[in-house]
Write a structure and sequence with these properties.
Blueprint lengths: L7 E2 L15 E6 L2 E6 L16 H22 L7 E11 L9 E11 L2 E10 L2 E12 L1
Antiparallel strand pairs: 1-2, 2-3, 3-5, 4-7, 5-6, 6-7
Length: 141
């Protein structure tokens, strides 16, 4: 196993690049779970005219957060970082709005893995307040 020092820039762990890279860094890993930070800039394509994140941005932040976590686990295990594809969304609930420049902490927990498929539970928080939560399904290739 390789030793990787946290925090680690998401750009080192996922194929996404600006303007579609919405997550900034992986800050904590516990087994197959992790915490990722995101701060969406004012130039994001996924904000409305008032600077609030669209609901689809919250889903994409969860998906990229899980990709960041999986990229870290691959690198830690000295494997090539694999690509993942969002194939399903389950029970996503937005509890509050988030805006550009808000510091978001995304708590991702791996619920299940079967072959190349995984289900993960995500919770996006801003200053401790839950902004959104739900489950995503991904195919990892």
């Amino acid at each position: 196993m390789a030793t990787l020092s946290l925090p680690l820039a998401a750009e080192e762990l996922v194929p996404h690049r600006p303007p579609m890279l919405l997550v900034d860094r992986l800050i904590e890993v516990d087994g197959k779970n992790g915490i990722i930070e995101a701060r969406v800039g004012r130039d994001s394509l996924l904000t409305d005219s008032a600077g609030r994140l669209e609901d689809v941005a919250l889903i994409e932040i969860m998906a990229q957060s899980y990709a960041t976590l999986k990229g870290y686990l691959d690198r830690r295990d000295q494997l090539p970082v694999r690509q993942g594809f969002l194939v399903g969304i389950k029970k996503i609930v937005r509890h509050a709005s988030a805006g550009t420049d808000d510091l978001l902490r995304v708590h991702m927990r791996t619920i299940a893995e079967l072959d190349d498929f995984a289900v993960a539970e995500g919770e996006i928080r801003r200053l401790g307040e839950v902004v959104a939560q739900g489950d995503i399904k991904v195919w990892i290739h």
